[in-house]
Write a structure and sequence with these properties.
It is a single chain. The protein has 305 residues and is of the alpha/beta class. Helix content is 34%, strand content 27%. The protein folds into two domains: 216 residues, P-loop containing nucleotide triphosphate hydrolases (Rossmann fold), CATH 3.40.50.300; 61 residues, 2-Layer Sandwich (Alpha-Beta Plaits). The strands form three sheets. The chain has a six-stranded mixed sheet with strand order 5-6-7-3-8-9, sandwiched between helices. A four-stranded antiparallel sheet has the order 11-12-10-13. The structure holds adenosine-5'-triphosphate (ATP) and magnesium ion (MG). Adenosine-5'-triphosphate binds next to helix 1.
Length: 305
């Protein structure tokens, strides 16, 4: 049995008029990257903050490294926290911020090494207010690492980052996983979860609607994979003659598949008839494709990110 570092059982959190988290259960194993996914307002941050001990729960059981985060006074020293919308004292620099956290948490982390890891060395002495959004986010991540935590809570660590900075954070997360850290990651970037997470839970309106490895979730919910063929009218005629349904999309012919096996049949059929197609690809639905269907529409804010 894998060692559980986080257990959540029938967790409920109600604010005055809404139930933000409505009876969710999951656990996270040691060394695992676990990703909570869901549209705006699904209850991810509420869940994460209850696990961090920052918010109180209404009911249910929660254990983090065997302790109740609401009661523990020592847990905070073993956790790394990057809050959503991280911010810091405006005129202090990343180096000062790291040294401050290091002192407060009585930590032994090497400030220079952490700055290097998140690619912030050249901004070490720039005041917080003069850092770009992505650099501020990287500082938040750096601060969460100062006490060499056993568990990291990363609430949207890459939101608003440019693609290169995002990949940098991904590589930091992979390095941390390689060092045996357990990581709870929330993100609106489904490809990020697909790439980094061992397991994901999809939340919607305070409930977990499915969980498993990204591949399991895609397997369970995918509806239609497509065969995309780059080909001309002759290919189209052959497809029609063979009774295959397809759509023309620019230079491509898109065929909805009932099974992956059907793709080989179609390609064989076309080869045998000497069709002039240039190439073909198989497009499986991604985690994002099935996610969008599962939770209805993604909120507009996400789309704007
Ligand atoms: N302090 C609070 N008081 C009242 N309602 C709150 C509070 N914090 C969150 N909520 C509500 O709880 C619900 C869940 O919010 P939460 O921040 O957990 O969502 P989220 O999944 O993290 O969303 P996002 O993707 O936008 O960060 C929302 O409807 C939100 O309005
Ligand atoms: Mg949130």
């Amino acid at each position: 049995m894998p060692e559980k570092v986080i257990s959540v059982n029938e967790l409920v959190k109600s604010y005055s008029d809404i139930t933000a988290v409505n009876g969710i259960s999951f656990s996270i194993n040691k060394g695992e990257v676990f990703s909570l996914l869901g549209p705006n307002g699904a209850g991810k941050t509420t869940t994460v903050e209850i696990l961090e001990g920052v918010r109180n729960r209404t009911s249910g059981d929660v254990a983090v490294l065997g302790e109740d985060p609401e009661m523990s006074k020592t847990l905070i020293f073993k956790l790394g926290i990057l809050p959503q919308d991280f911010s810091f004292i405006y005129n202090s620099t990343p180096r000062e911020a790291l040294n401050f956290y290091k002192g407060t948490l009585k930590a032994s982390g090497d400030v220079g090494e952490i700055l290097e890891m998140v690619e912030l060395t050249d901004k070490a002495t720039t005041p917080f207010q003069k850092l770009s959004g992505g650099q501020k986010q990287k500082l938040g991540l750096a601060l969460s690492l100062v006490n060499d935590p056993e568990i990291l809570f990363l609430d949207e660590p890459t939101s608003g980052l440019d693609p290169r900075a995002r990949r940098n954070i991904w590589s930091v997360i992979k390095t941390l996983k390689g060092r045996g850290k357990s990581i709870l990651l929330t993100t609106h970037y489904l490809e990020e979860a697909e790439l980094l997470a061992d397991r994901v839970a999809i939340m919607n309106k305070g409930k977990i609607v499915d969980s498993g490895t990204p591949m399991e979730i895609v397997e369970r919910h995918h509806e239609e994979d497509n065969l995309i063929i780059r080909g001309d009218g002759q290919v189209e005629s052959l497809m029609a003659a063979g009774g295959y349904k397809f759509q023309r999309e620019g230079a491509y012919i898109k065929v909805g598949l009932k099974s992956i096996r059907e793709a080989t049949e179609i390609i064989n059929y076309l080869y045998e008839r000497k069709a002039n197609f240039e190439d073909f690809t198989l497009k499986r639905e991604s985690l994002e494709d099935v996610f969008v269907r599962m939770v209805g529409e993604i909120g507009e804010e996400d789309e704007a990110e």
